[in-house]
Design a protein that fits this description.
2 copies of one chain form a homodimer. By secondary structure, the first copy, chain A, is of the alpha/beta class. Chain A contains 13 helices and 14 strands.
Chain lengths: 306, 306
Amino acid sequence: MIVMLAGGVGASKLILGFSKLLSPDQLTVIGNTGDDMELFGLRICPDLDTVLYTLCGKVNPKTGWGIRADSFRCLAALQELGGEGWFQLGDRDLATHIWRTSLLKQGYSLTQVTDRLCQAFEVNHKLLPMTDSFVPTYLVTDQGELHLQEYLVREGCRPVLKELRYSNIEQAQPAPGVADAILKAEAILLCPSNPFISIGPILAVPGIKELLVQTQAPVVAVTPIVNQRALKGPTAKMLAELDYAVSPTAIAEMYKDFLDVFVLDERDEELQQEIETFDLKVVTTNTVMTNTEEKINLARRLLEML
Amino acid sequence: MIVMLAGGVGASKLILGFSKLLSPDQLTVIGNTGDDMELFGLRICPDLDTVLYTLCGKVNPKTGWGIRADSFRCLAALQELGGEGWFQLGDRDLATHIWRTSLLKQGYSLTQVTDRLCQAFEVNHKLLPMTDSFVPTYLVTDQGELHLQEYLVREGCRPVLKELRYSNIEQAQPAPGVADAILKAEAILLCPSNPFISIGPILAVPGIKELLVQTQAPVVAVTPIVNQRALKGPTAKMLAELDYAVSPTAIAEMYKDFLDVFVLDERDEELQQEIETFDLKVVTTNTVMTNTEEKINLARRLLEML
């Protein structure tokens, strides 16, 4: 059984690849919920939903998030009532948030709700939230403190990042099933996701980093940085603003305490020796996934390696 | 200033007529909230919304409730997730419920939320909920106890009514502004609404019936029964099942403790003497409103009478 630690759009590409090769009992995804948000009183889990919509095939292929061919009539009406419209909530996507919020209100945990959503969307591979607690990530920026989604979506990643705050994380614990999955896994894969806002919150849940140190299974990270650029989103910008090198080396160093294998893109193979100094095995391959075939191919190469 | 006690579709016809003749400071509507419901964790106020949508001109003219040309994509998606689809929630209509629920969660009262919705929909006439408390009406029927909307919408009024229960009503009090409006009114009008599920809950709010007895202004009721039939909804069926005569006389008798004038339809003028025995003035006119002109005409005749 493979466990994947995942953010949103970047991660879901590789997860899709693995899902085509592994049966439901062979793959568990532990999803970031640090990007969760309350909007209009609704609990929104963008990363979990991106994985969910990707695995069920309903994802909007143009954006990588949201639902294909969704309409935005409710959001337009909410804006007419005075609501903010910067977070794109499609009419069909809204049903997920309404349903989730309603179940949470009835006392179901986020793990239970996510499981029910998986069943409803006929997603058979296991998707676990990293924690059942609400632990939104806030960014301290030159424009003040912003919720992660405000930074990403409303402000288009323009503010300069000074510091991250995983709110409420000290009180959080891994969701039921998370520790068990990590300890039973034959390999743990850190998806090519942002280390600060996607993988970072998962590692910040008390206990999870220790589990990654403890497990006998290889822990493998796929680089989210290729050729000094992020494959997706503000990873490169954040690295620079937080005084890291915009380099796979910086990523590998962050994970070195528990990491066994670093998957470097072939475009950056000159960095292999540098990364090996962290006492890691470095594997070099094409990590860029622009279509389903490449997603499956990368998953296949990683499985062969494991 | 005229105060109208109102249910939903039937009432909103007459309210629309009055709104065309009276300025905002001349008309206050006290709306029934006994038909309120929580669905998918959202607070839904069908009667208040029907008045709101009617007064702003957005109401669906075919149904008399909901929003004109609305779509139902979110509801379809909620049903795919396992939600019940019997209550028609349009995508634009949903925005009202999401917005209301969100404001209530933030601590605003239903009165404040209703006021904000009126502003957003540019409804200038005053609309007050009868109470800020959540006091859903339940019906004891041969099919068990049902929430009013389950009875009306899901069950299509088919179950046999045995008893009504205005839940939580003893703890309720009139919403801010309600007592003041009644005491300052130059006339109070009971709309041609169902006496059990529309007007009944308003009268059941502790203090409101006493205010109607106390006020010096004339209290006027417009018959919801014409020619032994209800103009709208299950009024006739309910009267029969609760062992009342299906007659305007039964309606007048229910209100006789505080009623000054009963507006009888001209089709029932033979009942005038019978109703006058309750020590009421009876006015006979056409009360059937099938178009805007008839709504304004009935409002004008009532204003002239007052």
